[in-house]
Design a protein that fits this description.
- The structure is a single chain.
- The protein has 61 helices and 38 strands.
- A hairpin with a 2-residue loop joins strand 32 and strand 33.
- It is elongated and about 180 Å long.
- The chain starts with a helix and ends with a helix.
């Protein structure tokens, strides 16, 4: 044990040594980046309080240090400095007669003693521009003494008092602007800058430290800006003043001794409650001066001028300082890490991966997760992905990878949804119970997270972006929320809530699965091949729809649409017959049919009538002639049989007679005997003979069929019976498997039958086997049966001879007569059975043909007697019926004719009358038929029937009704298509799916929040809870207390915050805040997410120490760490000293970013490509520049109000001056400021956020910022979040509109310097990709001034011709050829499924058909529009919008592809795309109806045809939105509408000047009545006012200076001070707009003047 322990220590020492050297290197590297400042002038901005004017608009509590008379505030919370925006006033209004003489440029300059004037001016300036005035003639001031007197009086009485006041105001304004500049840096670039108050300016020329001019006391400060009230204020930082004694600018030998320094430092700390306490502050400053090696002096003066001397001097000289943050906090952080490792702290796994090469194999998964709450535990792993926001596959892969690895690298180019992804990750890890840190080099990349996080977990995540009130409030909100939640926590209730959310989530997912199945069913219904639709159509819905549409012209006459369950109740034949009958109707026929017709069914047919008449006659004769036949015995009983049975008996008797006659004449004489015997019931013998014969013959034939013809020899004189016995015994012997044996050992059976073996042969073969023995046995049986048959027939006839086969056939012939005779016997029995019910009937002797014939004749006599009676009975009832019908009235004349014919037995009359009545009945039936058909026709097709009724005489109905069944099926199929396709069903389902998805996200969000709170409460032990409360109490004491204990409270708060940090599971803060507010500790966070990692240098490696896992998000195509001013040699020295055996030390150099480190150590990066920020035309440049191999996929769509994405502005007079980082281009800066000012006035830019980026150095940005302050003011800049800076200052940020300044310009005829380095490429990528909606490029160089390989050339060339997202083309085929192909059915049919339409990008002919329908309306249509590796079928593009059109036909790519299309459509919908779907079945049924909704949607989206683009563009440029105007009364709205109506009526003719003036007066009158304040007036109203003012001026011209006054007068407004100055700026900006429109021009006589250029008054109304 004693030997192994030292060995173990020896094994880990090298690794620990490497870790210590690594962090030592990082600490020393941070020290190298900390620049020593010995002169306060080196700081970025210094605002000396001595420059703060002693004005009523300025307040300063520090003044009391040198001026006891200064008021002392009783409010401790009052700021130390407060400056109110001054109400600057315009110069006094100049009388009209003085305007030509005064110098305009000097009139507003209050720094002059008085404004200058011209001694001579052109005479035309006084007399106007009349043609009679000599343009060269001059007027002298000496010639106008009254004018000179007025001038002197104006200057002395009005101008000088104004100038005196304005000079004071300008000083206040300067201070206001200076504070705003510092405020902007503080707010926007807090990671780079800090704001402090400096007190105690040390002036000393030390032999060791050099010349020193630095404050020795730093006080942490913060600037606040009240944009509404226009107040800039400076006071202590939110964490308090935190006074710090500075002596780092002094060498050690020049510093006070440690003891004195400690005492002074303690005195300084005691000032924390009130840093400006005069006595205490003086003690600190004076004590420091006295403690220096050379005793110095202290002067309580605000002055800061003068040089340093050998004797140190400390002046009060307070100043507000903006300075770069130092890296000292990083040094302290690394120092603590080094100490921990030296003390034996285990080296984190991610640090080991830096100092050694470690395989990044997936970590082992946890087998289960146990929830320690209540009594419920689970060992199953939680595999849920708690993403409350939509996410793509790449974003989901981040979680999948981090589960198994220590680190994940995510490349997130600009605008790819990194913040969205991080918000999802925060929710997921919180739900998993992890502690999370989200950080970045700058706070800008983190700001948007505040709005991304779900409200339910806000209190679990502190967004701490700096020393701002929002961060402080976020922390307090979290502390209060967690403590309150802990106080009210109910574990079992929360677990139930989690179960509820989980069940709700499960239910929504099941519902979505069902809805997706329904959507899939809709899709599958489109591609399903219907084999038989109503027996006529087949194919897909689209194919059936094509057939329906092709037959529309043929069947459109059928106006009804029967349902699929209804069949027609009429036929084509019925309808054809109906139309023919309708056409043949006559008035005479209609009149006859009004009488009652005798029913035909009651009449006898004419032929039958004639037959009955004849029958009556014949029956009478026959009855008389058959008297003798009635003497047959039992004749009376024969009549009892009904006529049907009599006829049946009669037929059987005739058959019996025929059979007897046949057998009596048979070839065999014995046949007659057999017939008589059998007829006489002597049939038994004959039946036996027949049965035996048939049996023997069947058996013989069976044996013959089995064995064939048999020839047996060797049996002569043998007893066949004995032979048969011997053969059977021998056969049985053989069957037992025994043989013949030998000699004396033969069996008895063999001995008896041995002769059979030796002598007998069958077909020539001996009987020595079973087969021949079987054949012998069969032969013996046949012989025996032939013999028996001979004996059976011996007494009847000679037996037949010949072969056995012939004998069998002969015997069958002999059986035939017997069979006939026996059938005769059966028939006789049938007669007896038929007459069984009439026992009195006497039957004849059946073998006597005479008696049988007598019975047959008796039956005939009975029938004749019956016929005679019937003939007589028919006529009497008919005559009676006819009489009754006539007596009933209204009978037709034919009825009487029938009665006459019946009574007179007149067959001819009867026939004629019958035919006439039949014809009438036929017409009556036809009429009834047509009535029935018509009723049925109307019942099943009412609309078609109504159409028929109006036009049945038209011949077309014959052809129509001939195809009625086809038309019925067509209409039924048309309705079936409508019901089956149900185009609303997919929309309803899609809406339901979207609603369910929204509810799913809510359920998932609530579940994630509940689980996150559960984990938080589980981990919140009593220690952390008490620390939270203690922190809250300490913060309250800091706010209310002051004095020497304030710092004690602050330290207590820091300690308690560190203790309770674990209780707050998620922190979002920039990297500099991490090192300032946390203490290094292993496992401090489970997961760290760092954004914009390419900006973070090696110092960010500290995150690997405090985290278990790290997610590195960044982009190596964006800006890398900045290291200006660091000595490269010293860096190399540190590398050699500390990193000698650490792998890849070059990656830890200054240029090495954390992203590059992660790329080296974390394989398989995840790349986000979907771009959500910029317009496609903007991000396309970045694709061309930096992402050529894997371009970003722009997913953002735009609406009808989109700005032109890329614009350029050429500054003709631009030039550059300066060099390196100090280069500037003043004309370009002014042009940008002018354009921004105009954009602020343009309604199209309402609520748009602006940013200005200088592409060369920071001086240009500073110049633009100062000009903007003067032009639009701090308030507008704050409102627009307008920041001017370098690309570095904007990384991680975005703006709606970005203004780029190229800065560079050609000099001395030489082209601009070429730049194409990687760093510039990254800066350009960042700069361009900040713009969401619009990018402006201001350039003073043309493409001819730049080299083609220069990055500036690429940028300018692109912006001059920005890429169109999709070219206007359809492939290799022209539109004419495509139309021709589309009309060729053979070409259409030749296209195979899955192929493109030849020579085009179209997937189907359906897309082509829809394409031409939209194209023919004049729209621009882009086929197969590429989006995110997929294609949209058609995109309709207008000037200000796009619509995605999906053609959902029967071209099908599989359900997997369909699912991807659904996901893509949802994703694109989230970023602004609007989709409209047309189904092939709807389109081909009725293209116009199918596209009606499309035209309405396009109109709603303001997507217009191409021919409207120019007018739309003009309208967008001139119209102002209703939101820019104040609400007006109904009366005013009616009045405005009247004015607009008048304007529309006058558009048809050119109006007169008087009419236009009247209309313009009405518009201005309306503006006066309902005018807003000057600062609220829409820019269009200001422009109209300018034009109207110029119209009223002499020669339509006035001085530039007087234009504002004239506009206010025109509007009948009075304003002064700041409102007037702001309005004047707006007038000047709108004047610039009028200049560009060509309506006015600026020129110069002596003063600048404005002249109206056109008298086209219509232009004045825009």
């Amino acid at each position: 044990m004693d030997r192994t322990e030292p060995d173990k220590v020896a094994e880990i020492l090298p690794e620990r040594d490497k870790a210590i050297r690594l962090f030592t290197y990082l600490k020393d590297l941070c020290a190298l980046r900390t620049t020593q400042v010995r002169n306060v002038a080196k700081y970025d901005q210094v605002f000396w309080l001595s420059d703060l004017p002693r004005h009523k608009l300025c307040r300063c509590t520090i003044w009391r240090l040198t001026d006891p008379s200064s008021p002392i505030s009783e409010q401790h919370a009052d700021p130390w400095i407060e400056v109110r925006k001054p109400a600057l006033k315009s110069p006094p209004e100049l009388p009209d007669e003085l305007e030509p003489w005064i110098k305009d440029e000097e009139l507003a300059d209050s720094s002059l003693s008085e404004p200058g004037f011209y001694e001579h001016i052109p005479l035309s300036a006084l007399q106007g521009d009349s043609g009679s005035t000599d343009p060269n003639a001059l007027a002298s001031i000496n010639d106008y003494p009254d004018v000179f007197d007025k001038l002197v009086d104006y200057v002395e009485v009005k101008w000088k008092p104004w100038a005196s006041e304005d000079r004071e105001f300008q000083k206040v304004q300067k201070a206001y602007n200076q504070l705003f500049n510092i405020y902007q840096r503080q707010e926007k670039f807090g990671e780079q800058y800090e704001v402090v108050f400096g007190a105690g300016l040390l002036l000393w020329k030390s032999p060791n430290s050099g010349e020193i001019k630095r404050h020795i006391l730093d006080i942490q400060a913060r600037i606040e800006f009240d944009r509404v009230r226009g107040i800039m204020s400076a006071g202590p930082a939110l964490d308090g003043p935190q006074l710090m004694l500075e002596c780092s600018m002094l060498e050690t030998t020049d510093r006070p001794n440690p003891t004195d320094f400690t005492d002074i430092e303690n005195d300084a700390i005691a000032l924390d409650g009130d840093p400006w306490a005069a006595v205490d502050l003086e003690r600190v400053l004076r004590g420091f001066a006295n403690s220096l090696p050379i005793t110095g002096d202290y002067t309580p003066s605000f002055e800061h001028g003068g040089g340093a001397a050998e004797k140190p001097v400390v002046r009060l000289a307070p100043a507000l300082i903006l300075r770069k943050r130092t890296r000292r906090t990083y040094e302290d952080f690394y120092r603590q890490i080094i100490d921990q490792i030296k003390d034996g702290e285990e080296i984190p796994e991610n640090i080991r991966r830096i100092i050694d090469i470690v395989d990044d194999s997936p970590s082992e998964e946890k087998e289960g997760v146990e929830i320690k709450a209540g009594t419920t535990t689970s060992t199953l792993p939680d595999i849920e992905l708690y993403f409350p926001l939509p996410a793509n596959d790449e974003q989901k892969r981040i979680v999948q990878k981090v589960e198994h690895r220590r680190g994940v690298l995510v490349q997130g180019p600009p605008g790819t949804g990194k913040s969205h992804t991080i918000a999802n990750l925060i929710c997921h890890f919180l739900a998993k119970g992890n502690r999370i840190l989200v950080t970045s080099e700058t706070p800008r990349a983190l700001e948007v997270l505040r709005s991304k996080l779900p409200r339910e977990i806000e209190e679990l995540c502190v967004v701490w972006l700096g020393s701002d009130p929002d961060s402080q409030k976020a922390l307090e909100k979290s502390v209060i929320g967690i403590t309150q939640r802990k106080a009210n926590w109910n574990a079992s209730k929360e677990l139930n809530l989690i179960d509820q959310f989980a069940h709700r989530l499960d239910a929504e997912r099941k519902e979505q699965a069902r809805l997706r199945h329904d959507l899939r069913a809709c899709k599958e219904s489109d591609i399903y091949q219907h084999p038989n639709v109503f027996g006529r159509y087949s194919g897909t819905l689209q194919q059936i729809a094509v057939q329906i549409n092709q037959e529309r012209d043929r069947f459109q006459w059928f106006a009804d649409r029967p349902s699929d369950t209804i069949d027609p109740v009429v036929t084509a034949d019925d309808l054809l017959k109906m139309v023919q009958i309708h056409r043949k109707r006559t008035p005479d026929l209609d009149e006859q049919l009004k009488s009652q017709l005798f029913p035909l069914k009651q009449l006898i047919q004419p032929n039958e009538f004639c037959r009955l008449v004849e029958a009556e006659k014949k029956a009478n004769l026959a009855h008389n002639g058959a008297q003798d036949k009635r003497s047959y015995p039992g004749y009376a009983q024969l009549s009892v049989l009904d006529r049907e049975k009599r006829e049946a008996v009669k037929g059987m008797i005739e058959g019996i007679l025929a059979t007897q006659d046949t057998l009596s004449k048979h070839f065999h004489s014995w046949a007659e005997r057999a017939c008589r015997e059998i007829s006489g019931d002597q049939d038994r013998v004959w039946r036996q003979i027949l049965a035996s014969t048939i049996d023997h013959i069947d058996h013989i034939e069976h044996l013959l069929n089995e064995h064939g013809t048999l020839d047996v020899t060797g049996l002569d004189a043998k007893d066949f019976r004995l032979v048969e016995e011997h053969a059977a015994a021998l056969k049985k012997h053989f069957e037992m498997g025994k043989g013949l044996g030998f000699w004396f050992v033969r069996a008895r059976v063999v001995k008896d039958g041995l002769y059979l073996v030796k002598s007998v042969t069958v077909n020539g073969k001996p009987c020595n086997n079973l087969q021949t023995l079987n054949q012998l046995t069969a032969w013996l049986a046949i012989s025996s049966r032939i013999k028996t048959l001979g004996e059976l027939w011996k007494g009847i006839t000679l037996p037949p001879t010949g072969s056995v086969v012939l004998q069998c056939s002969a015997y069958r012939d002999l059986c035939e007569p017997i069979e006939q005779a026996l059938a005769l016997h059966d028939r006789i029995e049938e007669v007896r059975r038929t007459c069984r019910d009439c026992p009195g009937i006497r039957f004849p002797v059946w073998h006597s043909q005479e008696e049988v014939r007598a019975l047959n004749k008796a039956l005939n006599a009975v029938n004749l007697e019956e016929d005679f009676a019937t003939a007589r009975r028919v006529f009497a009832p008919l005559a009676e019926s006819l009489t009754d019908f006539i007596n009933s009235g209204h009978s037709h004349t034919s009825t009487e004719q029938f009665r006459q014919a019946v009574s007179g037995r007149d067959g001819e009359l009867y026939r004629d009358t019958y035919e006439s009545l039949s014809s009438l009945h036929a017409w009556a039936n036809a009429y009834n038929f047509t009535r029935g058909v018509h009723e049925r026709f109307h019942a099943c097709a009412p609309r078609t029937c109504d159409s028929y009724d109006k036009s049945y005489s038209e011949p077309a109905w014959d052809e129509r009704f001939a195809g009625f069944e086809a038309a019925w099926v067509w209409a039924k199929t048309d309705r079936w298509l409508d019901e089956v396709s149900d185009k609303e069903r997919p929309k309803r389902t899609q809406r339901a799916l979207e609603n369910s998805a929204s509810r799913e996200r809510d359920a998932l969000k609530n579940l994630a929040a509940s689980k996150a709170w559960q984990h938080c409460m589980t981990n919140l032990h009593e220690k952390e809870r008490m620390a939270l409360i203690a922190w809250s109490q300490a913060v309250a004491k800091i706010r209310s207390g002051k004095g020497k204990y304030a710092e004690t409270h602050r330290e207590t708060a820091r300690q308690k915050l560190d203790e309770c940090r674990k209780a707050i599971p998620a922190w979002v803060m920039p990297l500099y805040q991490v090192v300032q507010t946390t203490r290094p500790r292993r496992h401090q966070f489970d997961v760290v997410i760092i954004d914009e990692a390419s900006q973070s240098g090696p110092e960010a490696l500290l995150l690997n120490y405090i985290s278990d896992k790290i997610i590195v998000v960044g982009d190596d195509k964006q800006i890398t760490p900045m290291h200006v001013g660091v000595d490269r040699e010293q860096v190399l020295y540190l590398r050699r000293k500390h990193l000698r055996d650490i792998p890849h030390p070059e990656t830890l150099d200054l240029e090495g970013s954390l992203f590059a480190q992660a790329e080296l150590r974390f394989p398989d990066r995840i790349r986000l490509r979907e771009h959500f920020r910029c317009m496609p035309e903007i991000i396309q440049f970045s694709n061309n520049l930096s992402y050529t191999t894997e371009p970003l996929i722009p997913l953002r769509q735009y609406g009808a109000d989109r700005l032109e994405p890329v614009r350029t502005f050429f500054v003709k007079d631009g030039y550059r001056k300066g060099a390196s980082d100090d280069i500037e281009n003043a004309p370009e800066a002014k042009a940008i400021v002018t354009q921004i000012a105009e954009c602020c006035e343009d309604p199209a830019y309402k609520n748009k956020m602006f940013g200005v980026i200088s592409l060369m150095g920071s001086r240009q940005a500073e110049l633009i910022n100062s000009l903007l302050l003067k032009e639009i003011g701090a308030e507008e800049m704050e409102k627009r979040r307008l920041v001017c800076g370098r690309p570095y200052d904007f990384q991680g940020d975005e703006r709606d509109v970005i203004f780029l300044s190229l800065v560079d310009a050609p000099q001395d005829g030489q082209p601009c310097r070429m730049i194409r380095d990687a760093d510039t490429q990254r800066r350009f990528n960042v700069a361009i990709s900040r713009a969401r909606d619009q990018l402006w490029l201001f350039h003073s160089a043309t493409v001819n001034d730049l080299r083609p390989n220069c990055l500036r050339y690429r940028l300018l060339e692109y912006c001059l011709n920005p890429a169109v997202h999709q070219p206007d083309e359809i492939g290799e085929t022209t539109l004419i050829d495509l139309r021709r192909m589309a009309c060729n059915s053979l070409i259409r049919q030749s296209k195979k499924k899955g192929e493109k339409v030849p020579g085009t990008p179209f997937d189907s002919w359906f897309e082509v058909d829809v394409f031409f329908k939209i194209l023919d309306r004049g729209y621009r249509v882009l086929p197969q529009f590429p989006v995110n590796t997929r294609h949209i079928d058609l995109v309709v593009e207008g000037l200000c919008g796009r619509l995605a059109v999906e053609c959902d036909g029967d071209e099908y790519h599989g359900m997997e592809q369909w699912e991807e299309d659904q996901i893509r459509q949802r994703e694109l919908g989230r970023v602004g795309w609007t989709f409209w779907t047309v189904r092939g079945s709807d389109f081909y049924r009725d293209p116009d109806a199918a596209l009606t909704e499309l035209w309405e949607i396009l109109e709603g989206l303001k997507i217009t045809p191409r021919h409207s683009w120019e007018s739309d563009r003009k309208q967008l440029e001139t119209e102002s939105t209703a939101a820019d105007r104040i609400p007006v009364s109904d009366t005013a709205q009616e009045y405005r509408k009247k004015v607009e109506d008048d304007a529309q009526e006058d558009e048809e003719e050119t109006p007169s000047v008087e009419d236009v003036e009247g209309r313009l007066d009405r518009v201005l009158e309306y503006a006066r009545l309902h005018r807003p304040r000057p600062e609220e007036m829409p820019s269009q109203d200001i422009q109209k006012t300018i034009l109207r003012s110029l119209q009223k001026c002499p020669n339509h011209s006035c001085t530039l200076k007087s234009l504002t006054s004239r506009a206010l007068k025109e509007l009948d407004m009075q304003t002064r001070g700041n409102p007037r100055l702001e309005f004047e700026k707006r007038v000047m900006r709108n004047l610039g707009a009028l200049k560009r429109k060509g309506l006015v021009e600026e020129y110069k006589a002596k003063n600048k003047r404005i002249r109206l250029l056109t008298l086209n008054q219509e232009a004045m109304l825009f």
